[in-house]
Amino acid sequence: MPYLGSEDVVKELKKALCNPHIQADRLRYRNVIQRVIRMSKLDQWGQAEVVNFLLRYQPRSEEELFDILNLLDSFLKSSSPGVVMGATKLFLILAKKFPHVQTDVLVRVKGPLLAACSSESRELCFAALCHVRQILHSLPGHFSSHYKKFFCSYLEPHYIKLQKVEVLCELVNDENVQQVLEELRGYCTDVSADFSQAAIFAIGGIARTYTDKCVQILTELLGLRQEHITTVVVQTFRDLVWLCPQCTEAVCQALPGCEENIQDSEGKQALIWLLGVHGERIPSAPYVLEDFVDNVKSETFPAVKMELLTALLRLFLSRPAECQDMLGRLLYYCIEEEKDMAVRDRGLFYYRLLLVGIDEVKRILCSPKSDPSLGLLEDPAERPVNSWASDFNTLVPVYGRARWANISKCQGAKRHGPELPNTASFATSGSLIPEENKERIQELPDSGALMLVPNLQLTAEYFEKTWLSLKVAHQQVLSWQGAVHPDTLQMALQVVNIQTIAMSRAGARPWKAYLSAQDDTGCLFLTEVVLEPENLEMQISVKQNEAKTETLNSFISVLETVIGTIGDIKS
Amino acid sequence: MISQFFILSSKGDPLIYKDFRGDSGGRDVAELFYRKLTGLPGDESPVVMHHHDRHFIHIRHSGLYLVATTSENISPFSLLELLSRLATLLGDYCGSLGEGTISRNVALVYELLDEVLDYGYVQTTSTEMLRNFIQTEPVVSKPFSLFDLSSVGLFGAETQQSKVAPSSAASRPVLSSRSDQSQKNEVFLDVVERLSVLIASNGSLLKVDVQGEIRLKSFLPSGSEMRIGLTEEFCVGKSELRGYGPGIRVDEVSFHSSVHLEEFESHRILRLQPPQGELTVMRYQLSDDLPSPLPFRLFPSVQWDRGSGRLQVYLKLRCDLPPKSQALNVRLHLPLPRGVVSLSQELSSPEQKAELGEGALRWDLPQVQGGSQLSGLFQMDVPGPPVPPSHGPSTSAPPLGLGPASLSFELPRHTCSGLQVRFLRLTFTPCGNANPHKWVRHLSHSDAYVIRI
């Protein structure tokens, strides 16, 4: 039990949380909760615990809600970051119907969060930065005036710098864009290649809104002729041109000359794509591509070769005279000498396409050159606070959503492992049982009292022997209409782990079936089902090898439900 | 609520291991953590890691890793706070926190952990409550050096002056030897400020940020009450105005929960009954508006001849402190372009030292007097692709990799914000006999002082 300060406190809590009489009486429960909140001698751990379990409390009226928020107000000013963040989360969750209260709380927590971001402890700084990013998803302008606090310091560890760059990218607005871009520009020439590449991608992100300024900066960076910078800039240009077609002109002017400085696969692909799609505006495009074609034998990356094929064909459509010869050479090489099958296939495909005719080629290859609407789709829309309020002050923002999803998947798979056989048997029942009935049937195994063992394999001789040795424990008549479809019934029974030992053919009169089931304590249920020739009622006789009335009743109810469900299908 | 807690040395040797809930793994989890930590890809943060439905969260303190594991999704802030508080507690009880002290005091550490955490839940971290339960005495290593200064010697003074407590005076265990009354009653109060500055290449100030803390380390018996008086004219927030003249201003202040603030509004006096051990009494921040000029200005001048690859960097460092003050342990760190292997230097005074190491220039100046100017001329060859000599020497763009200069220094007896402690008075001591020694110190040091070239 967490230690909350003193014996009285623990008593109060135990009273409130465990005593069903208090829980049933709303007013008493509320009084106890209020007393708990008002306790003065809690240390910071006690306060954090109080705030944590108050998350489960649902205030009934608005007045009560604001009462609690007022009482907890002092927690928001605590010097302990755990208490402040816990109180913030509580406010966000309790006030989920009052967005203005939520915004107010987030404004009040700005100070402590910013202090944590500049803390000496790097780990605290990192956790605070992750939460700042979380808040920025909903309130992008929240920290815009404090952008200076997120400038990276030279000595910080890499992971903190990356987070800060992301934050800078997200809090850009008209007033601070100039300074933020200048700062990011400084990072692009950083000694660490990873960090400078991250900064360039961040500028690319900002470029979707402030295109001109960013393209100018990126063009300047190309002038430095550094490999790790040039490749990322070209990739950024490729993405930008797709989303913001208005910058295509500027990009095309910047491109000539960078092919000398790109050695890696991603950069080459980006460059080749740009030359292929926008080659008509770049005078030297065919000659650059010719360089690549001449060196294609020594090209190690198959992805680059694929991109080269497509780009050259596209360029051929707009500048045929210059490209014809090298296209021929490239196609010859790819088809005759290339060892990578994917490249060869593409070369063959293009060759055959050309044989069909130029119109066909145009129809297939002239895809749209940009799709600005994709930018709107990709930009994460402002998420309402309630979507992440329950993740605030937990490990979820620290990991990031993607990693957390992975982690919970791994954890989930482990926990659900043993239940798999049940659902596997259900998978075979195909389309015979309509959807809503499937769900009803599937619920049965979980009905508490009776757990029937799956995959019971009882031989017919054993069944007969046991059947004859037992007396009938229960008999019942169920109404029934129409004929029986044995397969349907058999499968439905199998879902609830009732095995069919023998069943008459469809249409037999009288129609009989013998079923068996065993529950987890080893008690056997043997059932005979008889459908009289008049087809109006079904007679069920159940024999049990141990005299347990409760389990017998549960079994009967399971059987009734199944048969009732099958009966409903026909009616 | 944590499952396990362990402490590793900086090389990954487990020093302490404690399992609280017995629900996950065994001792080999410590080795697993270290392997995962060292094998982590560069862009993933090591602060929280996940392995086999266990979360590892850790802090680095004094070269040690303090790690906690948990299987629940709990608040990272609470966990990190717990780990920091544990680090402080262990430091209080063992004297200081380090590999040596922990190895000598293993029994005490386990006893502390037993009392602080019960089945993974925090019971209490208050020194007062714990001292009733802890029986083991700490083992202190005898020889300590008077000149043993860590990067910033806290709770003690610099050794440049006489008649001050050596910096290791405060690193004795707090609660040792109850029976020994002859121990000196001492209290150390430090006003420590961290200065972060960013100056652009054209000399304009981009960012200045001061984070200040008033830290108290008390060896007095608990129950003593003290009052700390701060500068009366100090104002909180942009709109407040006290006294005459510009005054001393901070943007935000926060206090420890045990500080009584009745006299703070009127006379800027804090009243508290500190427990034994370390305590941060007050934290404050100030940005963008320093009352005093920045302590250092750097005037770099770079000449780079692309043709021959010769790079000449002339650095002039001017100290803008008042003439009576000085800066200690000043070091300038300047990353150089890749491939520079040697450099020649001319320094303006003999105590300075400059050397090239790990791709950067390190210029050490042990002591810089206020108002003085120091300079150094460095010449080196930058290897790179040859450029036709028609370009000639240019001062337009410095070569890539000539990174921002970062300065690290300490400013004793100086606070950048101007905040000072006027007095520290003990109003009540339970035993009342010896007159306790009070050491008050003001110190500023650089956190990240970056000047772009």
UniProtKB/TrEMBL annotation, chain A:
GO terms for biological process: protein targeting; protein transport. Keywords: Golgi apparatus, Membrane, Protein transport, Transport. Signal peptide: none annotated. This is AP complex subunit beta. InterPro entries: AP_beta, AP_complex_bsu_1_2_4, ARM-like, ARM-type_fold, B-adaptin_app_sub_C, Clathrin/coatomer_adapt-like_N, TBP_dom_sf. Belongs to the adaptor complexes large subunit family. Gene3D superfamilies: Leucine-rich Repeat Variant, TATA-Binding Protein.
TrEMBL record, chain B:
Residues 184-452 form the MHD domain. This is AP-4 complex subunit mu-1. It holds the Pfam family Clat_adaptor_s. Adaptor protein complex 4 (AP-4) is a heterotetramer composed of two large adaptins (epsilon-type subunit AP4E1 and beta-type subunit AP4B1), a medium adaptin (mu-type subunit AP4M1) and a small adaptin (sigma-type AP4S1). Interacts with tyrosine-based sorting signals on the cytoplasmic tail of cargo proteins such as APP, ATG9A, LAMP2 and NAGPA. Interacts with the C-terminal domain of GRID2. Interacts with GRIA1 and GRIA2; the interaction is indirect via CACNG3. Gene3D superfamilies: 3.30.450.60, Mu homology domain, subdomain B. Keywords: Endosome, Golgi apparatus, Membrane, Protein transport, Transport. SUPFAM superfamilies: Second domain of Mu2 adaptin subunit (ap50) of ap2 adaptor, SNARE-like. One of its GO terms (cellular component) is Golgi apparatus. Component of the adaptor protein complex 4 (AP-4). Adaptor protein complexes are vesicle coat components involved both in vesicle formation and cargo selection. They control the vesicular transport of proteins in different trafficking pathways. AP-4 forms a non clathrin-associated coat on vesicles departing the trans-Golgi network (TGN) and may be involved in the targeting of proteins from the trans-Golgi network (TGN) to the endosomal-lysosomal system. It is a peripheral membrane protein. Belongs to the adaptor complexes medium subunit family. CDD domains: AP-4_Mu4_Cterm, AP4_Mu_N. It is found in: Early endosome; Golgi apparatus, trans-Golgi network membrane. Residues 381-401 are annotated as: Disordered. Its main location: other. GO terms for biological process: intracellular protein transport; protein targeting.
